[in-house]
Design goal:
The protein is built from three helices and eleven strands. It is mainly β. It has a single domain (4-160), classed as Rieske Iron-sulfur Protein (3-layer Sandwich), CATH 2.102.10. The longest helix has 10 residues, at 151-160. Residues 20-134 form the Rieske domain.
């Protein structure tokens, strides 16, 4: 897994990062705010929010919703993308699913934010000489959003299209 600092790092070097996938120029990504791209067999969303670059699997871990259409909001001090289909909240930095929980025995009941754990695969974004690259999170642990990166899912989606 990547640290928050690694996730949003902007580095400069004279050569392309190893095993990184070119997304576009930083100016283009910043102007577009959100870029989706099929790279290395993964559908990736790269976005620029408050001057930081973030990358994650494009489809929501819950039901495959298009995260590129989701709003970005802050929950409990953490920036999240909100899936437009079912309003699932996913942290930009770690890919954690967040939910609100209420303790019914507290008076008055006060909702608090909790993590469901890592549900969305996030990837490392780097900038080299004005170009933006994504290096995949190569954790061997299965993450829920991985299902929507399979050929099986793409086949199902292509059959469902009119």
């Amino acid at each position: 897994m990547f640290s928050e600092e690694e996730q949003a790092s902007c580095t400069s070097s004279s050569s392309d990062p190893p095993s990184a996938h070119f997304i576009g120029t930083k100016d283009d990504v910043v102007q577009a705010k959100r870029v989706t791209k099929l790279v290395g067999g993964r559908d990736v969303l790269v976005l620029c929010h408050l001057g930081q670059l973030h990358a994650m699997d494009m489809r929501c871990y819950h039901s495959g919703g298009p995260l590129q259409e989701g709003d970005i909001e802050e929950f409990d001090g953490r920036m999240c993308i909100v899936c437009p289909w079912h309003q699932y909240k996913i942290t930009l930095a770690e890919g954690e699913g967040l939910y609100q929980k209420v303790n019914p025995s507290s008076t008055p009941p006060k909702p608090t934010w909790h993590s469901k754990g890592i549900k969305q695969r996030v990837h490392l974004v780097t900038e080299v000489n004005g170009n933006v690259y994504v290096t995949f999170n190569d954790s061997l642990d299965t993450i829920d959003s991985d299902f929507y990166q399979t050929e099986r899912y793409r086949t199902i989606m292509n059959k469902a299209k009119p």
